[in-house]
Structure formats: structure tokens, C-alpha cells
Amino acid sequence: MRKLTYYVASSLDGFIASPTGGFDFFSMEPDYLDAIAAEYPETLPGAYRAFRGLTGPGRHFDTVLMGRRTYQVGLDAGTTNPYPQLASYVFSRSVLDSPDPTVTFSSTPLATVRELKARDGLGLWLCGGGALAAELLPEIDAFIIKLNPVIAGSGIKLVDLGFQPHRLRLTATRALSSGVVFLSYESTTPAQPR
């Protein structure tokens, strides 16, 4: 069965984006971008992959999942499919028509993820946002948090959930000279039906 990994940048205080969805306060230092390009090249936007000359299939993921507000950031920049190298799914309760035929919209995150997990293929990458992460929490198998040395103060939470402890087990760490630390965890809380 395929695994769902929440692979996302976060501030020290647990925010993955500004209150308006921006993420330009996160590191874009060369060591950070090089680390992503080396280990998770499929998670870089298509335009940046082309700029860096990165081609070929993904190493870890062949599918990306995101909430509508995360997807909107790309739309606002004129990109209808930020990750054309991956099968793209956007979850929304308000917008169900895709402006791009290569992007699938769904209003049923849990059912869709369970269906995708049952298919053959590489892993599933949840790239945001916090509300979608909260809804999918029972299905998230692994977390890779790119912890950035910044305090945001407010914004979109890593997991937008009330007090509901979810246990994780640290499996790896990697610190970069820019101060970004990659923290890898496995979920140890059994999936609960929702």
C-alpha cells in the first residue's frame, strides 16, 4: 500500500504560510534548494525543475495533494499546474472545476486518499494546507517537516486542529548550514475512521 507523507516547510512556531497564504519568508538558500533537488526533486515546481535541468520520474512521490488555498497561490502566479511531473489532486468544497485538465479536483479528501493509497505507484505527497492536513491526519503515514529558522507569529498552521494529540516517532534528522532542519517522523497513532 502506498504511503501518504506530509512534506512541508514550517516556521519554528508551526506555521506553513502567512495569513494570506504566502511562503516567501521561508529559506531559499542554495543549500536548502540543493538538498531538495538531490533528495526530493519531484517536489520542486515544474518551472524551477526546468530551470535546474531536473528531469525524470520522482524518487519518492508520483502524486501531489493540496488544498484549494494552497493551489490558489500557483493560480495567482499564473500557474494552473505547479507540479506537472506529478498526478495532481486539489481538494475543495467550493470549487470543483479544474482550470487545467491535468489537475483533478475532489470534495472528498479521505475517500480519495484511501482510493489512491490502494493503487500501485510511488508515495503520495501532501504539500498543504493545514486544514487539509487535519482532515487527512488519520491517513498520514509520515511527516517530513522542513523546519525553518524563523518565527512567523501567525498564519496557516501546520495542522489546523484543536487539541487532539497525535503521536509521532522521529526517524531521521538533517541540519543544513542555512539553519533549516529536515525532521522525519512516522505516525504511531493508529488511523481512526472518520
Automatic annotation (TrEMBL):
Organism domain of life: Bacteria
One family name in Pfam for this protein: RibD_C
GO molecular function terms noted in the UniProt entry: 5-amino-6-(5-phosphoribosylamino)uracil reductase activity
Domain Bacterial bifunctional deaminase-reductase C-terminal: 2-182
Xref: InterPro entries: DHFR-like_dom_sf (IPR024072), RibDG_C (IPR002734), Riboflavin_Biosynth_HTPR (IPR050765)
Biological process terms in GO annotation: riboflavin biosynthetic process
PANTHER family from the UniProt entry: 2,5-DIAMINO-6-RIBOSYLAMINO-4(3H)-PYRIMIDINONE 5'-PHOSPHATE REDUCTASE (PTHR38011:SF11), DIHYDROFOLATE REDUCTASE FAMILY PROTEIN (AFU_ORTHOLOGUE AFUA_8G06820) (PTHR38011)
Protein name (record): Dihydrofolate reductase
Organism placement in taxonomy: Bacteria, Pseudomonadati, Myxococcota, Myxococcia, Myxococcales
